[in-house]
Amino acid sequence: MTTIRHVKPRGNFERYAYLFMRLSGVALLLLAVGHMLLQHVFRDVHSLTLQVVADIWRSWGWRAYDLLLLAFAITHGFNGLRQVLEDYIHKPSTMKAINRALLVLVVITIIWSAVAIFSFRPEAAMVRAN
Predict the structure, then answer these.
(1) pTM for this prediction
(2) Within 10 A of 36 (CB to CB), how many other CB atoms are there?
(3) d(CA 25, CA 1)
(4) Cα(53)–Cα(78) distance, rounded to whole angstroms?
(5) What is the CATH number of domain 13-129?
(6) What are the pLDDT tens digits along the chain (130 aa)?
(7) Phi, psi values for residue 39, rounded to 5°
(8) Distance (Å, rounded) from C-alpha 14 to C-alpha 20?
(9) Nearest-5° angle of CA 61, CA 124, CA 118?
């Protein structure tokens, strides 16, 4: 005897989260390797000072690059944490609360990082260094 069940598929969120992990992993690889090459290979490691960072961060492009690297790392990491927790927590209401808390933490961390990166004043760093 064959039993027929109608399974209602959940939303596409998990599919998009899976795809995001793969694409953000590639983006992180490219951004992190680029960062390492530009900051630690093409420059002398021992000459990396606050003055050098101040000179680099005079450009909005470098600040955006660093923020993009940070945003991908934060979202990739928290999404991975969410997926691991989902393997161990089986109560939907608890998982929903955890997902919301993680989302709030991601948003707060990215905003906090953006404020730190874009409020950095190279002129003040130079005055302090001298």
Answers:
(1) 0.79
(2) 11
(3) 46
(4) 28
(5) 1.20.1300.10
(6) 677 777 566 678 888 999 999 999 999 999 999 999 988 888 877 878 888 888 888 889 999 999 999 999 999 999 999 999 999 999 999 999 999 999 999 999 999 999 999 998 878 776 655 5
(7) -95, -30
(8) 10
(9) 30
